[in-house]
Specification:
A hairpin with a 4-residue loop joins strand 4 and strand 5. The two termini are 18 Å apart. This protein has 142 residues and is an alpha+beta fold. The strands form two sheets. It has a five-stranded antiparallel beta sheet with strand order 3-4-5-6-7.
């Protein structure tokens, strides 16, 4: 518990200098001011569950929805839910003296989560709304 408290204090202390750099002036003289904002993220994809069945039998669809808030150029938080279905299976499954067979199954699930987000690009390089890529560290659980 003490390690988590110390880590949280260090990350908050590191974000303080970046909060003071919440303005950016572009090469053409345009000035940008950071504004706190909410955001929505949506995602779809596929997942693979480790098992002994064929690879294609263990692929399943996946979807994610998240709602977050960016408090400063460096610090944000997000709540999310990842859901749809998952599959599992065994190869050579048998009961008693029965012949071995492949057994597959699937189930539906919801996996909620909460993340604290730290924009490392803004922390190290200063706030830049025109930056194409940002590196963000996530700390959280679900």
């Amino acid at each position: 518990m003490k390690i988590k408290s110390t880590l949280a204090a260090v990350l908050l202390a590191l974000s303080a200098p970046a909060m003071a750099q919440a303005t950016y002036e572009a090469a053409d003289g345009t000035k940008y001011q950071f504004e706190k904002h909410a955001f929505l993220n949506l995602g779809v994809g596929a997942q693979y569950t480790l098992g002994e069945a064929k690879f294609s039998d263990l692929l399943s669809p996946n979807a994610q929805v998240g709602l977050g808030y960016q408090f400063s150029p460096v610090f944000g938080a997000r709540v999310q839910a990842n859901a749809w279905q998952s599959k599992g299976g065994w190869n050579g499954y048998h009961v008693g003296n029965e012949a071995a067979y492949t057994k597959t199954f699937k189930w539906k699930y919801v996996a909620p989560g909460l993340d604290l987000m730290f924009n490392l690009s803004n922390l190290i390089g200063g706030y830049n709304p025109l930056r194409v890529f940002n590196v963000t560290a996530f700390i959280g659980g679900g």
